[in-house]
Amino acid sequence: MRTHSPTYPASFIPLCLVLGLAAGCSDSAGPTDTLAATDTETGDGDGDGDGDGDGDLGDGDGDGDGDGDPGDGDGDPGDGDPGDGDGDGDGDGDLACDYEVGPNGVLMFEAESLALNEDWQISADVPGHYGSGYILWSGPSFNNQPGNGLLEVVLGVDQAGRYRVQWHTQIGMGQNATEHNDVWLRFTDAADYYGKAGDDPETRRYPKPICEDANFIAEIEAMPQVSGAACAAGSSSDGWMKVYSSGATNWKWSTQTSDSDAHQIYVEFAAPGAYTMQLSARADFMLLDRVVVHREDVDNATAQAAGQSETPCD
């Protein structure tokens, strides 16, 4: 795949602005999504069956001259807008983040390293996981109610562009690979995020309700690299995408959206900076082990390498 650095029409409104999710959101960030919908499914029971599973931060000054001078230096708390180069507001050019993209283009964290809440639990009972264990949701399923058991991870991104999200997962109950296999995902301040299938041309699947906006879809489909765009099949609400695994009765890299219409997960960042990824509970006993966010030109052998270490921010 090639690195994707699109130029968007001026009419696009970033998801973070439409949803009011992030004070640091820029109106030049590119196209994004907003959502609300209901889903009458009683269990997740979908899955598509294909499961293809298919660094350093910039100079930190935000002025683009590459000299590494401290950022704006005003030290104002909460300065940290994406791309201003000083995510912690002390003027030293450092990003305030949890994990950052490494020199090989991969950001990685183990799920058990997250600050858990509510009914999230750490376990190591199922062999074959990476790190010291994995996490699972032991409470009730939330097939139509994203936002429960909210987990947030701040990502330090060193280059603008398109990134892929992948995780190592397994169903934690029974042998039906279409159950206990999904979680909710949302980005609050990224330029855009969606499911993608194919390359030149590609198709995209967006969450609701932005995908129900005919003008938005028309503008996406006007991009030369996009042959079609639509709503992701399955439940979606408030910018949250249902992200599921396929065939993961054993540990597997499998991360996709749109029921029976598998599209891999991609996110676009308009500038270097710190961005928030949110996860929330959907299926109970979905085992989440390792998460990577990597530049789209990084191959799977690198992104999924078993021996890699977490990439915490300094």
Automatic annotation (TrEMBL):
Q: Where is the composition biased (Polar residues)?
A: 29-40
Keywords per UniProt: Signal
Quick check: keyword NADP in the entry? no
Where do Acidic residues bias regions lie? Answer: 41-97
The superkingdom listed in its UniProt entry is: Bacteria
**Span of the signal peptide:** 1-29
Could you tell me what this protein is called?
Dipeptide-binding ABC transporter, periplasmic substrate-binding component
- What is the scientific name of the source organism? Enhygromyxa salina
